[in-house]
Amino acid sequence: MRLRRELLPADREAIALLLAATGFFNPEESAVALELVDERLSQGPESHYRFLVAEEAGQVLGYACWGPIPGTRFSADLYWIAVNPNAQGHGVGRALLAAIEAWMAEQGRFRVYVETSTRPQYAPTRAFYLACGYQLAAELPDFYAPGDGKAIFLKLLTAPNP
């Protein structure tokens, strides 16, 4: 498996198919994810969004998207991490997350925030973040919809020097 920090035009379709294959993302969520892809492809390095793509034999296995939080000194948002169901359980998600965290730290971003749904469907996602050293920082009931709250996770990568 190879991890690359470059987002290629061909990745757009692969990411759209990957998002659909997971069965987790509704059409609105997938559209938002693809808007971030489109922005990065059109703006290149000037885009706020950074992408890491996991691939093997020319096939996209998964991807992650992150960005520094504007107005903060050390914080970053992990916007998306998704792995093709056929590649899940083989360390792709952990490899993406570890590489993203290293990239964030290189950029001086030591506080990583992740938001996800509190719906039962997302229990494995929440368990993944907890297993990777994140802590539940906040929960906002009914944020997305009635019965669908937002869970906000935080991980401190290192203590920044003042």
TrEMBL record:
A Pfam short name: Acetyltransf_1
Signal peptide (residue range): none
Keyword field: Acyltransferase, Transferase
N-acetyltransferase domain span: 2-159
Taxonomy, superkingdom: Bacteria
PROSITE patterns in UniProt: GNAT
InterPro entries to which the protein is assigned, alphabetical: Acyl_CoA_acyltransferase (IPR016181), Bact_Acetyltransf (IPR050832), GNAT_dom (IPR000182)
Gene3D superfamilies: 3.40.630.30
Keyword Transferase: yes
Record lineage: Bacteria, Pseudomonadati, Acidobacteriota, Thermoanaerobaculia, Thermoanaerobaculales
Gene Ontology MF term list: acyltransferase activity, transferring groups other than amino-acyl groups
Name of this chain's protein: N-acetyltransferase domain-containing protein
